[in-house]
Write a structure and sequence with these properties.
422 residues; alpha/beta; Immunoglobulin-like; 2 domains; eight-stranded parallel β-barrel; five-stranded antiparallel sheet; 25% strand
Length: 422
Amino acid sequence: MAPSSQPKQKPLFRDFIGLNVHTVQFRPALYRPVARHLRDYHGFDWDVGDDPSHAPQFPFARNRVDWGALYGAWRKAGYHIDVSVMFGGTPQKSWKDPARNAFDYGLAFAKFFGPSGGRNLAHAVEIGNEPGHYEDAFYRTVFESMARGLRRGDPRLKIATCATAVAASGPYHKSLSTLKGLERLYDVINLHTYAQVEGYPTWRRSYPEDPAIAYLKDVRSVIAWRDANAPGKAIWITEFGWDASTKPAPATGTFQKWVGSTETQQARYLVRSFLVFSALDVDRAYIFWFNDEDSPSVHGSSGLTRAYRPKPAFHAVAHLQQTLGDYRFGRVVRQKPGDVYVYEYRHATDPKRRIWAAWSPTGAERRTETTLVAGRGARLEKAEKMPLKAGPPEPVRAAASPNGSLRLTIDESPVFLWLRAP
């Protein structure tokens, strides 16, 4: 069959925003304003214990977590679930018969969790999160066998790779070359990306549009690899985020030189990441993390909530979901690094309804006036800034002229402009 000449339709934002969570710690009602897609870290060893040849005992994990009740409650609350099966607690040497064990688990998992059964608990499953402790050839065997079992158990269950990169395999990803030739066995290419300027000892992160870091470059390289080697596969960014603690780095230990972001930066950079990801050929992006306890360390303060109380990032992402949930990316209106980014989003059913998102794409407290040309006959219905707290967002004044131009002040927090096309 010849490839379609029709351009791929962008996802609606309500299907673009995802959130990383963890089993019994997650509170479904609290996070409903933020996302409808969840990614759960699901320990393989929870299901099989210390021996991969053990048959899982669904609906129960071996520690007696009831997956049917847990995921069932999330589904009842309106969420869609991507299960990331993690091998971190299962050493390579513990597998007695990797091909057989992986196939059997995949078959049992798909039959119990898959969308074709009456439970309909999971819509996707990742074969591994960051299985860097597995040799490439060993992971390929586990991946291929488990994917075959999943396909046999429920062909409607989407299968995703572990975290991948267009690079040699490392502790936190597998090279995409490891999976070459297995394209029929997966639906989604998965990657993690963090806006890291440097690693140990500071782990300092930058803003998402920073041209000096690999944050977006790594995403573009995976897209290019997909286009050349696995056309048509979806791409999910299943981890991205920023740490924002109210505490200073500890005086001693591993994290004494750790550098975090402010809570305002975390909120801005998460929202701006969703916007820049939406302009790329990416199908979904999951925030890391849902809740934290304010630890000044790597991944220790990256939650949307702190002790289950919303941080500024929670309000900002909830506003993004409310604002763009029924819209999809339409086009780049303007994209000038270091100056201004403006993207257009189009309503799912009403082509005259547009929303423009405009912001200063830097990591500084920068404010600037800009003029945007919406076009003659276009009507500005309202304008507001991304909020950092509960309550009505801050309205933005935009001077409109008869020729359809808009003059307004923008800063690091995106401004959203509701437009009615002529």
